[in-house]
């Protein structure tokens, strides 16, 4: 089957598309395991269309869009942030804040294409590592990141609505 995935950097005019895609894929990924109330509160207060649109074009953010033909099927958001205390000793990093794939395209190479480009972009920026936070109950994502060489180095609390959840902090060293 012909399954070409193309990746490009997001542009400011992509902001609304990214915001709606973000909300859709987040909901698809986590609604079954969380209460409706917590999901609605999180989407309204912390994952609003307005706040997501504001991320596009920020100097510290790199957003990659994955397309299959002309259909957006995934995206990744990396950002320059202060390292969490779990990244010790401190190194030059990028946070992989999001890597989301449309539910109907999971398992079709979209996540791998995005991850490969995230690593390339991080290396172009002379970063020594990528790090991320992943919900410890998201076994598929943990397995995916582990396959790509990320190792657990700690944990932090992520608040979804009113529910404090445990995110594992994972780091991938980028060997040059």
From TrEMBL:
<dbReference type="Pfam" id="PF00583">
    <property type="entry name" value="Acetyltransf_1"/>
</dbReference>
<dbReference type="GO" id="GO:0016746">
    <property type="term" value="F:acyltransferase activity"/>
</dbReference>
<keyword id="KW-0808">Transferase</keyword>
<protein>
    <submittedName>
        <fullName>GNAT family N-acetyltransferase</fullName>
        <ecNumber>2.3.1.-</ecNumber>
    </submittedName>
</protein>
<dbReference type="InterPro" id="IPR016181">
    <property type="entry name" value="Acyl_CoA_acyltransferase"/>
</dbReference>
<keyword id="KW-0012">Acyltransferase</keyword>
<dbReference type="InterPro" id="IPR050832">
    <property type="entry name" value="Bact_Acetyltransf"/>
</dbReference>
<dbReference type="InterPro" id="IPR000182">
    <property type="entry name" value="GNAT_dom"/>
</dbReference>
<feature type="domain" description="N-acetyltransferase">
    <location>
        <begin position="5"/>
        <end position="175"/>
    </location>
</feature>
